[in-house]
Amino acid sequence: MERSEPKPTSAGLGLVGEASGEVRCRCGRVRTTHEQWTTLQERQNFDSVSQPSDNSKQRRGQNYFPFATSHQLYKDRTNVLTMRCGSVDRTCWFASPLLCYTISVLLLTVIGSVASQDTLKYTVTEEGELGAFVGDVFQDMELFNKFNGNSDILGQLRFRFLRGAQQGFVIDDKTGVIRTSTRIDRESDRLPCHNKDICDVKLDVAIQPIQYFQIIKVSVEIIDVNDNYPEFSERSITHSVPESSFPDSSILTLNVQDVDSPKNSIQRFELLPASNSVFRLTSSSQMDGSIEIKLKLQGTLDRERVSDYNLRIVAYDGGNPSKTGSVDVQIVVLDANDNSPTFSSPSYEVSIPEDIEVPQVIIKVHATDPDIGLNGEIVYGFTASTMKHYKDRFVIDESTGDIRAIQPVDYEETPVYTLGVTALDKGPSASSADASVVITLLDVNDHAPEISMSSLATDGSKNAVVPENAPAGTFVSHFSVTDPDSGDNARVSCRLDSSHFKLVYLYDSEYQMLTLTEFDREALGQYSVKIICQDHGVPSLTAETTVLVDVSDVNDYAPEFEQNVYNAELIENNYEGAVATVVRAVDYDAGVNAEIVYSIAESVRHLFSVDPDSGEIQARVSVDREQVDQFQFEVYATDKGQPPKSAAANVIIHVQDVNDERPVFNQPSYSFGVFENEKASTEVGLLLAEDADSFPYNQFVYKFSQQTDAFHLDPKSGRITTRRLLDREEQSVYHLIAEAIDVEASSQRSSTVSVSIYVADQNDNVPSFVFPNKANNTVYVAKDVPYGYIVTRLSATDPDIGNNARLVYTIFSGNEDDVFDIDYERGTVLVNKDLSQYEDNSFLLNVTAEDSGVPQYRTWSLLTIAVNGSLMLQPMPPDSALSLGGNNLIIVIALASTSGVITIILVMAIICIRRQDRRRDQSNGKYNCRIETLKFINGGKRRKLVDGSSSSGSTSNGSDNGDVANKSKKEVSFSLEENGSDACHDRSGKSWCSVIDQQTLQPDLGSVGIASQGIGTGFGEWEEQAIRDTEWSMVRATLRRPPKLLGAPVWE
Q: Compositional bias (Polar residues) at which positions (predicted)?
């Protein structure tokens, strides 16, 4: 709700001492109380008024509330009194705060009353000219005399309206003359003159300045002129009146209005022509100032004499001359239905045969009405009683009076029909006439005899019952025969068409049926006997009925199931009470002997139940196909005979699968290995998962949970292959998550497994010298260093790992006199001769670093060793303790060679022993992984080490065809012969199975060659270490002899 805060303006000030008056506070909506005064003194000086005074007017949302002095005020006591004016918005009092405004009341010297108790009254005629003179407040209030003609005071006086400025008047602020500001229209909605004899407009004139403040009450009376005509709501009216209207009834009501003042408004009415004696006028004033005129009937109407009247109603106002308004009224006299229809006969009779064809006209009635139009048009119909009983059998045409039979009639049902017919005209007050129509039916033989049977059975059965052992002549049933026709048409004769029963006539239309023989229910349990009855009409009609005779039973049959075996299906995870199947059995006995009770085998009653009456088998528990996919048990049917008989049937319930199992991997995690640099689509490994559901719910696909551009997982087979070349130096291991997801979209289930793929190293990087290099390649040595002194140490790097990164250092050239020796493993350069003879000479050595991978890569560099005679002998580097020189080197080489030969002999002995064990295990049908491992060592094939040189500074062995000196190096090839299908050992050599870890993928076998099959998983630690130690010793013995390179490297 929007709240508009009050906007108080200056209060009416200038209270005069010792005189009573009022102060006005102008606010939107004001509510004041004594509690709003600030001090007790203020409460004593003024009284508040919480409602507007009677002469207060609400203008532009403003209310004037007077504050009156409660006693006389004296200036000599105080010049100014302060009060507070409070306002509250009543439209939302609970949300509007009390706004208080302080008003100072200046007490002035007594110069006169605050406001004259008299009111200046002026008159002005409406429709006058703009600016017409109304009155002179200055003159009429005798202000000149009041201020003793003081020109200074009179020149200060200013006049203004406190209210009423919007009512068409203005006041000259200096002269106090009031004039019209617009053309005054007394009938205007903005003036409160409607329907008033005297129209006064109240004006409040304020005189300022404050020290001369006065409020002058002015009342301006608006004099009315007769400037409006009486106006009817319509110019002309046509109205219809029935000729049967009663005298003094109102037949027409009109409204007429004149907006002038009551004395100039409508004064009288006149009905023309004056010779009219049939109608008269009455009038009454309404609340809105209009007059309601009623045209009343003061005589009777006769349409046949006068069919219409043309009248004029004239209204006269009170002006001089008076103004008039009129309306033309045409009264049309409507015909009254004052004649009733008359039938040509008060009663009509007709006879028809009962087999008349329908629909067919059987009689026509006729009536006349002397009236005209609708009053003379006749509508025929049936009386209410006839419609109630015979509306579905007879109809009457409402226009022609034809009576038709629409349904067959039956003499035996109703031989005579009496119908009441009516004739009704269509006038507004319809008149009617009645007549009767008697329809007599003529009988024909249209009914066959009717046979009814009573077996006298106590159980209420419609069939007749004969005991199995009843003798001939036993009563079976009683018959009665009727024919609703009359005469010979109703006389009947009956017979049977059975040889087992006879019909005995008792008396008129009564018969009984007896047996002619004994019966066997097992041979035939029921007999059908036809009874034929024929009347003597012309033509005669025949009736037939069949009587079923049941032979009572003894319990001599056992129940029989409809099927010996019931195959049913039950969806797993079913709810308790789910219906699996329904078994049914029949018993050829009757009655209680044929009532069957079903039961189920005791062994499965905790799983299934059977309804004893319906044979419905229900599950008592929720079944799981993955635990039990089929249930087989017996169900029994037992009758209620004495003694009871029973039968059994087998029930096989097949549990139908739902997708409630998810694929499960056969391992909690997988680890695979694959060599780097293998081409795309190289097989890495195989994932295997199983889904315990049945088809199609056991169908699933494999996928990686995360995107990878390195590997592809076949969604069907679970086979992992590479997508691209792998680089071990870029990434050595991939940790992936694989998913097995159901294909069934409605309820997909899945499982995940972690897959680790290790990238095995291949020798795809060339060693690189750290020292010597192009910027640092010179070493100075004193001439008197001892034999075996370490001059420097070569340093090179290879980003590969294992053997591929194990480097062998050699002096390729520049050391023809064997002045220096080199440790091939450590790269330390040692003094091998006395250097004093080479004083101030320099040696330019071509040194190489070669890895132990396959193929081998080699790089070279130039090392300058300068023998300086002026240098002092420096202490030997710490590595000198590891250096070998002179005779010691020869001894070590000899020992290493001897150890290598001994090791080879031991390895061969182990191989022989393992082969014997393998043959023994094969004869016993067993497999020993450790024994099979030794088959890896099956002869030492020498691997060629190709040395070469290139301007690029590196050589890849095994692929160059240049002039290279060949030097043999031992190669050991491993192979594993398997009789089983162990996937761990059946590898292509490019990847490994999941049991190989990262250490196995990076074997440190020195220069031993690894065959493409790789290393299997059957090694023991001591066997693998024995192989490594043996082969490395042989390789070291070979590498101690420095190879020769053709050509010399050149610094770029």
A: 41-55
Question: How confident is the model over 322-344, as pLDDT tens digits?
Answer: 888 899 999 888 877 777 899 99
pLDDT for res 892 = 60
| Number of C-beta neighbours around residue 532 at 10 A | 16
CB 861 within 8 A of CB 766: no
Q: Where are the beta strands (DSSP E) in 428-474?
A: 432-442, 450-454, 464-466
Task: Compute the distance between CA of residue 896 and CA of residue 46 in angstroms, rounded to an integer.
Answer: 134
With beta carbons less than 8 A apart as the criterion, state whether 534 and 481 touch. no
Encode pLDDT of 202-225 as tens digits: 888 899 898 888 888 988 888 888
Cβ atoms of 662 and 742 within 8 Å: the answer is yes
Cα distances from 676 to residues 754, 766, 804, in angstroms, run: 21, 16, 13
The pLDDT of residue 827: 94
Distance CA 947, CA 325 (A): 140
Residue 1017 zone, left/alpha/beta (φ > 0; ψ -120 to 50; rest) = alpha
- Is residue 720 within 8 A of residue 713, CB to CB? The reply is yes
Name the residue type at position 594.
Answer: A
Q: How far is CA 978 from CA 578, 694, 926, 992, in A?
A: 55, 35, 12, 16
Beta bridge partners, 512, equal 478, 504
d(CA 155, CA 147): 11
Query: CB–CB of 984/995 below 8 Å?
Result: yes
Residue 641: CB atoms within 10 A of its CB come to 21
Tell me if residue 156 falls in helix, strand or coil: helix
Cα–Cα nearest to 645, from 732, 604, 585, 576: 585
Q: How sure is the predictor about 67, in pLDDT bands with cuts at 50, 70 and 90?
A: low
Are 693 and 661 a contacting pair, CB within 8 Å? yes
CA-angle at 237, arms to 231 and 243, nearest 5° = 135
Question: Which uninterrupted H or E stretch holds 44?
Answer: helix 40-45
Nearest to 294 by CA among 235, 345, 240, 253: 253
Please, which residues have CB within 8 angstroms of residue 730's CB and are 6 or more apart in sequence? none
Calpha distance 225→378 (Å, rounded): 63
Specify the pLDDT at position 10.
33
CA-to-CA distance for 76 and 583, rounded, in angstroms? 123
Q: How far apart are CA 1048 and CA 1006, in angstroms?
A: 27
Segment 526-539, tens digit of pLDDT: 899 999 998 888 88
pTM of the prediction?
0.37
pLDDT in tens, 380-424: 999 998 998 898 999 999 999 999 999 998 887 888 999 999 999
Neighbours of 124 (CB within 10 A): 21
How far is residue 95's CA from residue 93's CA, in Å, rounded to a whole number? 6
Structure tokens, 404? 């038709």
Ramachandran quadrant class, 27 (left: phi over 0; alpha: psi -120 to 50; beta: rest): beta
Q: Residue 938 pLDDT more than 60? A: no
> Which DSSP helix (H) or strand (E) runs through 310?
strand 308-317
User: First CA to last CA across the chain, in angstroms?
Assistant: 95
Cis omega (within 30 of 0) on the bond before 346? no
Query: Which residues, 6 or more positions from 534, have their beta carbon under 8 angstroms from its beta carbon?
Result: 449, 492, 493, 494, 540, 541, 542, 543
Q: At what angle do helices 886-923 and 1021-1039 cross, to 10 degrees?
A: 140
Using an 8 Å Cβ cutoff, are 343 and 431 in contact?
no
Which residue shows structure tokens 């000149």? Answer: 144
Residues 340-361: tens digit of each pLDDT = 899 999 999 999 988 888 899 9
Q: What is the pLDDT of residues 250-281, one digit of tens each?
A: 888 888 888 878 888 888 888 898 888 889 88
